[in-house]
């Protein structure tokens, strides 16, 4: 068992004793205590810790201020937050930490229980394993030339995550997601290379590669008598290229495909230099027959104004609103409101990131149209999806 150094920031004497005993009972921890944020920062400047656990309600420097200071350290520890305040407050403070680039190991409502402490140890084990995997990766393999060759050679592939109808349980679509079959590192998820592709200004090459592979897969499925619309992520800043829509349409036409079978999801990771480019590109995509989705709605800066002023056909509900909705009445209420708004605007609503049956039940009660997530299927290659489609038929939705 790994042993982790933990610094606990708490100003109540009883909590000091209680937390020390609880962590010792859970095992795998060396615990130190600090009474306030200033003392904690002094300790962090001198010593290395694996985890900082802090209460939010603290004198002089509250937990949020401590989080902001923590983010300025060269190598901050993982962070866990605890409070007797509302769960909504806890989640909001967790978002502060995540947006500052900190690794959030846990959000705990007081009183802290042993199971939650064991959960922290499990999360630290996961972070430790991720760090080892990252340090073992071959260096110097992310040059622009390497990325371009990976795109050209087909190492970076389109895999497809099915979308299931919550009305009848059938597969009604899929989202194309990039996977890199790296010759040395194995299967890499987008988080391992997408940012580097953007930095190398190869995002248009990635977009056209994923579109080309999607059109090829759809043609293969059509030969089997299978028709499936596919959605593809489109970084919004690419709409600054005035000829982008024409190039995408030409690629579809040369493959003798139907643009109505492709939906482009406008992502929030970037924006256009001019707002007119955003609206011009979005309108032209729809004029050419493509579907258009507002991606990650409910996260970041997605706005109601964009939703009602852009000719979207689909509303993608961000996974942050889905995760835990089975146990969180606030999230369930938000999902009901969003799906109702989608219906009034004539949009297909699609929830991302469903992992449990409880979450499916909430989405079904909210009358969400479609869902994707690991409980349905992870992203799979075109051959596996074809097999899944052949097995798919009229059947009841999951219950």
UniProtKB/TrEMBL annotation:
<dbReference type="InterPro" id="IPR001789">
    <property type="entry name" value="Sig_transdc_resp-reg_receiver"/>
</dbReference>
<dbReference type="Pfam" id="PF00563">
    <property type="entry name" value="EAL"/>
</dbReference>
<dbReference type="Pfam" id="PF00072">
    <property type="entry name" value="Response_reg"/>
</dbReference>
<dbReference type="InterPro" id="IPR050706">
    <property type="entry name" value="Cyclic-di-GMP_PDE-like"/>
</dbReference>
<dbReference type="InterPro" id="IPR011006">
    <property type="entry name" value="CheY-like_superfamily"/>
</dbReference>
<dbReference type="InterPro" id="IPR035919">
    <property type="entry name" value="EAL_sf"/>
</dbReference>
<feature type="modified residue" description="4-aspartylphosphate">
    <location>
        <position position="55"/>
    </location>
</feature>
<feature type="domain" description="Response regulatory">
    <location>
        <begin position="5"/>
        <end position="125"/>
    </location>
</feature>
<dbReference type="InterPro" id="IPR001633">
    <property type="entry name" value="EAL_dom"/>
</dbReference>
<keyword id="KW-0597">Phosphoprotein</keyword>
<feature type="domain" description="EAL">
    <location>
        <begin position="140"/>
        <end position="393"/>
    </location>
</feature>
<protein>
    <submittedName>
        <fullName>EAL domain-containing protein</fullName>
    </submittedName>
</protein>
């Amino acid at each position: 068992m790994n042993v982790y150094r933990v610094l606990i920031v708490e100003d109540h004497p009883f909590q000091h004793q209680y937390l020390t005993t609880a962590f010792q009972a859970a095992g795998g921890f060396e615990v130190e205590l600090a009474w306030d944020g200033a003392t904690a920062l002094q300790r962090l400047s001198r010593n290395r810790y694996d985890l900082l656990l802090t209460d939010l309600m603290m004198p002089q420097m509250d937990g949020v201020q401590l989080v902001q200071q923590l983010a300025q350290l060269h190598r901050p520890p993982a962070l866990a937050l605890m409070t007797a305040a509302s769960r909504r407050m806890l989640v909001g403070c967790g978002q502060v930490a995540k947006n500052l680039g900190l690794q959030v190991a846990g959000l705990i409502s007081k009183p802290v229980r042993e199971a939650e402490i064991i959960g922290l140890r499990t999360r630290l084990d996961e972070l430790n394993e991720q760090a080892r995997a990252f340090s073992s990766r071959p260096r110097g393999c992310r040059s622009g030339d390497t990325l371009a060759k990976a795109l050209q050679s087909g190492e970076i592939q389109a895999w497809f995550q099915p979308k299931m109808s919550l009305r009848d349980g059938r597969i009604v679509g899929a989202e194309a997601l990039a996977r890199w079959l790296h010759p040395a590192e194995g299967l890499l998820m987008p988080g391992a290379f997408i940012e580097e592709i953007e930095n190398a200004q190869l995002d248009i090459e990635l977009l056209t590669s994923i579109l080309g592979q999607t059109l090829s897969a759809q043609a293969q499925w059509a030969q089997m008598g299978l028709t499936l619309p596919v959605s593809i992520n489109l970084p919004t800043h690419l709409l600054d290229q005035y000829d982008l829509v024409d190039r995408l349409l030409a690629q579809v036409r040369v493959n003798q495909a139907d643009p109505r079978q492709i939906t482009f999801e406008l992502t929030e990771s970037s924006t256009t230099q001019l707002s007119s480019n955003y609206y011009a590109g979005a309108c032209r995509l729809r004029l050419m027959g493509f579907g258009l989705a507002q991606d990650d709605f409910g996260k970041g800066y997605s706005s109601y104004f964009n939703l009602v002023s852009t000719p979207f056909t689909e509303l993608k509900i961000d996974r942050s609103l889905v995760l835990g909705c089975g146990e969180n009445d606030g999230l369930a209420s938000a999902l009901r409101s969003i799906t109702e708004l989608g219906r009034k605007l004539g949009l297909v609503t699609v929830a991302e990131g469903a992992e449990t049956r409880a979450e499916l039940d909430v989405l079904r009660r909210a009358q969400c149209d479609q869902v994707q997530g690991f409980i349905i299927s992870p992203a799979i290659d075109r051959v596996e999806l074809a097999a899944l489609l052949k097995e798919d038929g009229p059947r009841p939705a999951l219950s």
